[in-house]
Write a structure and sequence with these properties.
Strand order of the largest sheet: 1-2-3-4-5
Number of strands: 5
Helix content: 10-25%
Region (Disordered): 1-40
Distance between the termini: 76 Å
Number of helices: 2
Biased composition (Low complexity): 13-24
Radius of gyration: 27 Å
Shape: rod-shaped
Strand content: 15-25%
Order of helices and strands: HEEEEEH
Length: 107
């Protein structure tokens, strides 16, 4: 049996090359993976702020039972504090994490 090399298809040899080229022969641009923003994980007496990989970036805890006044203690990185409401405590954690993720200029 003889092989006829004149009748071979004129398309790219590999699957990857075939997918990267269009009908015009130009490669298609690759799409960037969308960065998933951090999210809040809700618990019974505490909430955790986690990134897409599940690493803990910050947390908010409710004060112990019977302790008055009721406060929400938050911690993120080297910063911590107490707030009167959950909304404000969560905002402080998000603010602190956002501040820590930015590179500040040296001068």
């Amino acid at each position: 049996m003889q092989l006829d090399f004149n009748r071979a298809p004129h398309s790219p040899a590999t699957d990857l090359a075939r997918r990267l080229t269009t009908a015009a022969g130009k490669p298609t641009p690759r799409r960037r993976k969308k960065e998933v923003p951090p999210h809040w994980e809700r618990g019974y007496r505490s909430h955790y702020y986690r990134n897409e990989r599940g690493d803990k970036l910050g947390e908010v805890r409710l004060s112990d039972r019977g302790e008055l006044p009721v406060v929400y203690r938050w911690a993120a990185g080297n910063y911590s504090g107490a707030e009167g409401s959950l909304v404000h405590a969560r905002a402080r954690v998000e603010e602190t994490v956002g501040f820590g993720m930015r590179q500040l200029s040296l001068f």
